[in-house]
Design brief:
- This protein is of the alpha+beta class.
- Helix content is about 30%, strand content about 30%.
- The structure holds zinc ion.
């Protein structure tokens, strides 16, 4: 079995007057992430981890934020396109492990929905999509609620 691991990280600012999308799910919150797309930090980190595992560059190469066709795009579409790229390159996904780093909102009750959204696109069982969350104990930009971070690792195997 030929296995390949990939890592991804993404950051977005949190601002008022934006919908808050995380893991493909809309979460009610007073702020949302700022970005060219819907700024779903978790899906972007997963895309980068998949592309990294296949050595296919990064999300900015495939879906540039200078391209107006990606303006406010649902990042689930970007994840689907990334899964398609991975598949075309001859890989299937084994599992995804992620950690979110944010102070608020509390996302525990949304994790199941996020797992389902991601697993559906990646054609995986729910227990192959791990989503963990932590805070930074009020330190730094995450602690000041100015932004959030997502980290992802993805394991691929050759088809
Ligand atoms: Zn992003």
């Amino acid at each position: 079995m030929n296995l390949r691991i990939g890592f991804g990280i993404d950051f977005h600012q949190l601002v008022t007057d934006r919908e808050f999308w995380l893991g493909g799910v809309r979460i009610p919150h007073s702020k949302g992430a700022l970005g060219h797309s819907d700024a779903d930090v978790l899906l972007h980190a997963i895309c980068d981890a998949m592309l990294g595992a296949a050595c296919l560059g990064d999300i900015g190469i495939h879906f540039p934020n200078t391209d107006n066709s990606y303006k406010n795009i649902d990042s689930k579409i970007l994840l689907q396109k990334t899964v398609d790229l991975i598949s075309k390159a001859g890989y299937s996904i084994v599992n995804i492990d992620t950690t979110l780093c944010l102070e608020e909102p509390k996302i525990k009750s949304y994790i199941n929905k996020m797992q389902d959204a991601i697993a559906g696109i990646a054609a995986l069982p729910q227990n192959a999509v791990s989503i963990k969350a932590t805070t930074t104990e009020l330190m730094g930009f995450v602690g000041r609620k100015e932004g959030l971070v997502a980290y992802a690792t993805v394991l691929l195997e050759t088809i």
